[in-house]
Amino acid sequence: METLTAVEAGTAHIAMSFGNEGYKAAAAWLNGTDAFCPKRHVVALQANGETLAKLQTIIGGAGTGYRLLLAGPEDEVRAARSHVLGAGADEDAMVLLPTA
Known about the structure:
Elements: E1 13-18, H1 19-31, E2 39-44, H2 49-62, E3 67-73, H3 74-86, E4 94-99
Parallel strand pairs: 1-2, 1-3, 3-4
């Protein structure tokens, strides 16, 4: 997986996944995105303070136009969504994919 480097508006694809099923879903989503876009996949066990701070930093460095996928158990996806929205993330840029 590539890491984010110089990100142009509208080109960054960021995924945060929780658990095995979330990981699989996020990997499939990223594989379906434009091959020339910078990609970042953050894998976490749960949406805790450290994990969410890392995600917030990544989003902050992405500028405008990024796409963000949150995948995994519904409670983790909701917690991550709530955190990034509270930090000023664009809800229209988010894709939520709760898994069983």
